[in-house]
Design a protein that fits this description.
The chain has twelve helices and 13 strands. The chain is of the alpha/beta class and about 400 residues long. The protein folds into two domains: about 30-90, DNA polymerase, domain 1, CATH 1.10.150.530; about 95-365, TIM Barrel (Alpha-Beta Barrel), CATH 3.20.20. It binds S-adenosyl-L-homocysteine and iron/sulfur cluster.
Amino acid sequence: MTDTSFMKTPQVEIPVSAAGNIPNNPDHQGREDLIGLSREQLAERFALLGEKPFRVNQVWSWLYNRGIRDIDGMTNISRETRTKMQDVFHISRPSITSQQDSEDGTRKWLLKFGDRNEAETVYIPDRDRGSVCISTQVGCTLTCRFCHTGTQKLVRNLGAAEIVGQFLTARDSYGEWPTPNETGRLLSNVVVMGMGEPLFNYDNTVTALKILTDPDGIALSKRRVTLSTSGVVPRMYDLGRDVGVNLAVSLHAARDDIRDQIMPINKKWPLKDLIKACREYPAVSNARRITFEYVMLKGINDSDADARELARLVRGIPCKFNLIPFNKWPGSDLECSSWDRIERFADILCDLGYSAPVRRPRGRDILAACGQLKSESQRERLKRHQTTEAPPAA
Ligand code: SAH
Ligand code: SF4
């Protein structure tokens, strides 16, 4: 039996699944969302409506190539069929609670879903390209010591519609419809590195990734999609088999005793198992290396010995490191390593033959940097709470 004692208990379990018989993201009239249904699910639905299989391709293209938000605009489908579709389907977008632009071009949205839960999505530009960082859960069941999201209790998993909807909202915001050629896109990459542990919301995340990488719609190459996990080992094997996107692993320590202290998941799946899963991840090659994320924590994981141990641990895996300066948040007992220490750590890894760039924090002024997601939405919530429900004491 799986030991889940290290996880927080979800407070409100709202079943959202694109996989089973539960309707996909229904609206208030009970109509199913077209967004977030897999091709197979769409085919089932259209067969039930008595429609031919080619409808799936037509609808798919309207939704994900053209970005349509209204069934009536699907003009190559007969009016009669559109009416039939409107009776049972809707097309969702999360609503935008707030949008903030950083001075470095990073844009962050606080998005609200049908049940008023919220999650954050960030766009990080990089010259003529850019990455959309998407969330997979509201909160997180894990409690990594350095992560602000981990202090927010898990509210629920996001559904496939809500995961894909974050990318669609970002595309709406930059007007990137219809899907441009691969070379001419501002929103060229996706990183599943927002709030939550994606591999604890496996089915919805995989459905969303298949939609994002479908060549007839949003058409992101799998090489441009990276999923970050804290190390849900059995699901890493599944992910490699089911979608094969790039893998990033939040390693953060080279020894179990240190990792146990900062990442509770290590007690369940220790380094030996995690590294084995990385070695066996399919499609890893020198051209498609695993990224090991390593948050630099003063006095905890940043010594010369740690760097050498790290290199030993991953020997033989086509990989690169991403050294992340720790982003401090109110209430955290940890400090970021000094700049000299980070440089020395990077140099040791480089001398041992590893690429180890230091991740430049982006969007810090709008709290969009790694591990800072949550703070703003919580603050917003608090502000609203104060203004709508609890007038300040005189
Ligand atoms: N749950 C997944 C993905 C979301 S976290 C995971 O843990 O991998 C995305 C990345 O941000 C992870 O590498 C995480 O370790 C890192 N991170 C979390 N809190 C941070 C902080 N305060 N400063 C810097 N990086 C942080
Ligand atoms: Fe969850 Fe990832 Fe944060 Fe850990 S680092 S608490 S797994 S979001």
